[in-house]
Write a structure and sequence with these properties.
single chain, alpha+beta, Trna Endonuclease, Chain: A, domain 1, elongated, disordered N terminus
């Protein structure tokens, strides 16, 4: 353990935010138990797109599954595959869209469809309701009672009549109707929204196993010790700027009974964590002023970054993996004090 701090740039921090976020961690734990499972979308009768496999995993967060999965795919831990494209309203983006069939003359949707029947023997063509007499079909031309559909008579197409303007036609005009806001629009104006199914990225399976399971072990260890752990968590700095840490332990064991916070960032850099990360972490700590703060550098700090961290009087844990960092993290002074 070295006395040494950091902020991670967006590219570096994003995977760690995914691994530390409780919802995404639960999804990854589910997928690690079901490596070959694809998380598939399902459209409800309301046209909302859901992921039913995650309802028991996410609980109250299940309605946000699409955005959570998209973030995980952007971070590279999930692979997304296009499952479908659904129309959405160009005005309000709602996917609750109906298709309407309209009269080509007055564009009214109150139309009636019938089928055109042909009596094969005499050649009479008329609508099905003209052929139908009670429970029988009788040719309106030769009055023959017809028994065998497809042999004596057949359907040769559909026919429509508008109940507003009485126009008869054989092809409708289609439009979409947005049910929530009552917007009507033609198919060429519809937004096509892609929906995806997701699988775990097997190319980084070992990394995911290590990060998710070990990170979960660390949080479980702290929670089992009676500590409140939020990962990630935002502390508001004296400047008023929100400062996000990968993991924050909160307890009421302050010097005068007040709240005590231990903030931690976990920086993953290949091959080593540089000075920029240390400077950013130091700036966050200086502004947020947690009771104690620790930077975990995986696999190590550069020599310059280590010197800078020492000069800034930051405490750093360096380890080749988060698993190896577990023991020194548990032995950090502030953590041991809170547990005792």
């Amino acid at each position: 353990m070295t006395n040494v701090a950091s902020t991670i740039n967006v590219e570096q921090k994003k995977p760690q935010e995914i691994y530390s976020d409780p919802e995404t961690r639960r999804i990854l734990q589910f997928l690690l138990r079901n490596i070959t499972v694809a998380i598939s979308p399902q459209a409800l009768p309301t046209d909302e797109v859901t992921y039913p496999q995650l309802q028991s995993v996410l609980g109250e967060q299940a309605p946000e599954a699409d955005s959570i999965l998209a973030r995980m795919a952007a971070a590279g831990v999930l692979i997304e595959t296009l499952a479908d494209k659904v129309p959405a309203c160009p005005e309000c983006n709602s996917k609750q869209v109906s298709t309407r069939y309209l009269c080509p003359q007055c564009y009214n949707f109150d139309i009636t469809r019938s089928f055109l029947f042909e009596h094969l023997k005499c050649g009479k063509v008329a609508s099905d309701d003209t052929f139908r007499k009670g429970s029988e079909y009788i040719c309106p031309k030769c009055q023959t009672v017809l028994h065998n559909f497809g042999v004596e008579f057949r359907a040769i197409g559909a026919w429509y009549r508008c109940n507003r303007c009485n126009n008869s036609f054989n092809a409708t005009v289609q439009s979409h109707f947005c049910r929530p806001k009552h917007h009507q629009f033609t198919p060429d104006r519809a937004r096509l929204i892609p929906i995806y199914e997701y699988k775990i990225n097997t190319q980084i399976l070992n990394e995911i196993r290590n990060q998710v399971l070990v990170y979960g072990d660390l949080i479980s260890f702290l929670e089992d010790a009676g500590l409140k752990v939020i990962a990630p968590h935002v502390l508001i700095g004296k400047s008023g700027v929100p400062r996000t840490f990968d993991l924050v332990v909160i307890t009421s064991k302050g010097r005068w009974g007040g709240e005590k916070t231990v903030a931690m960032d976990i920086a993953h850099s290949d091959p080593e964590t540089g000075q920029d990360v240390v400077r950013e972490f130091a700036a966050k700590v200086r502004d947020a002023k947690p009771t104690a703060s620790y930077l975990v550098a995986i696999p190590r700090l550069s020599n310059d970054a280590r010197d800078l961290a020492r000069n800034l009087k930051l405490t750093v844990v360096e380890a080749s993996s988060l698993k190896e960092a577990m023991a020194p993290i548990q032995n950090l002074a502030a953590i041991k004090e809170l547990i005792s």
